Amino acid sequence: MFRYLTGVALAMTVLCASCTDTPPAVTPSAAPSNAAPAIDYTAWQAGRSTPVADKLYPEHGNAGLDVLQYDLKLDWKPTEKLLTGRATLRVRPTVAASEIKLDFANLSVDTVTVDEKSATGTLAKEKLTIPATLVADQPVTVVVEYHGTPKQVSYPSHRRDAKEGVGLRPTKTGGLWTMQEPWGAMTWYPANELISDKAMYDIAVTVPKGWAAAASGTPGPVEGNTYRYTSAVPTAAYLTTLAVDKYRQVTQTGPHGLKLSYWVLPKTDDKLLPVLKKSPALISWLESNLGPYPFETAGALVNGSVSAMETQQMLSLGRPTGKWTKTEQEFFEETLVHEYAHQWFGDTVTPTGWTDLWLNEGFAQYMQYLYEQKLYKFSDADLERFIRKRDAELRKSVGPPGKPKAANFAESNVYVCGAGMLKELNDALGDKKFFALMKAWVAEHKDTNQDRAAFIAFVKEKTGKDYSKLINAWLDSKSTPK
User: Fold this and answer.
1) Which residue from 6, 9, 3 is spatially nearest to 322, judged by alpha carbons?
2) Taking the CB of residue 392, how many other CB atoms lie within 10 A of it?
3) Is the dihedral of CA 261, 203, 221, 217 positive or negative?
4) Coil, strand or helix: which one is 99?
5) If both were cysteines, with which of 290, 398, 414, 459 could 358 make a disulfide (CB 3.0 to 4.6 Å apart)?
6) Is pTM beyond 0.85 here?
7) CB distance 173 to 208 below 8 Å
8) Residue whose C-alpha is closest to residue 187's, from 126, 230, 236
9) Average pLDDT over residues 271-275
10) CA-based torsion, 350, 354, 356, 360: positive or negative
């Protein structure tokens, strides 16, 4: 999850003590066929998921659909602030249904087809509804052409960065950027905004000469002014990203030949490069604790947000403002560790629902704390005191991390209190067993969605001891466990 890029690092604390509805497309609807699909969908089976309706935000996503792959062809005109898109979705219905319902907001639909037959697409209340006869497990291909000026949407939280909303938005100078969590993808393509529906992606973005596009996934060849990115491994919609600006690409080689790319604005972001170029060392440190980096490329793009986010294979980092002090540089470095840690926890192993957000934020926060401990040489006792003090404050103000309220999305309790649980588990097991457990968790659940029950069962299986009392107490208690 993204974090504020303005604030004070833990080390310093320890050591110093709406949617615009659009009329439906006018193309006539053809009667869909129940015949077996002519397309071979085998190539997209890596995107097969088991969608689960989200308990915390049931209004988002559609558990009746499993999107196997998104093929997005986008064109951005900076002077007009016009986005034109063609989204091809390979969709596996999980149940029989009479319509396809996707999340989509603030853009106008031009045409819709289902298996190459014209269909209508009605937009209302951030939903695109397409009549179609769906047969369970019989995939269909949906193509939506659309255009407009993208605009972000809101999400329910008291975080300071919630004011900027989530989703794609243009900049005053003609650029584009997005922060996605929990449902910003629908502002630039029709999406199934379920954290449990991970899919493959092909993204192609055409921009004018002198501009560049950065997106999630593995960078492909640049053809003329078209930039391509591919995610051959499953990616949740909220973990996709896109940015367009007059970027400069800086490349670097990380551990075992890992290719890294940083997309920065010349002069404006030059001060960030010395910290960004620490990425190989940061990833190596994480690998020593968590196992091999789980994707084939890594990198970061810098945008206009006040936050940062773990978008898959390409971190989205807000541009720090103000004086670039030593403290701010250190905080930026610690933020990088946090977001890179999410590539293991949250990206390759993703929670099944938003109720278990602690399952990635607590893990990334704990790795950040351990990195700060390494950097600033404070003791385990210092870390314990800090976590317990902050944990008590957060449980009182927001509640326990395992029972989040819908109005408090991704507030600090899922970070700090989740990290507190992991520290107690670490203390109980010792470093060797604890980090062996973390490595095994990722390796054995790669590219899947998991929940609390799965984590508790996994810990018991690997350690031979039932730690459910410890885990549940830290996730559910109204006060800090003893």
Assistant:
1) 6
2) 14
3) positive
4) strand
5) 414
6) yes
7) no
8) 126
9) 98
10) positive
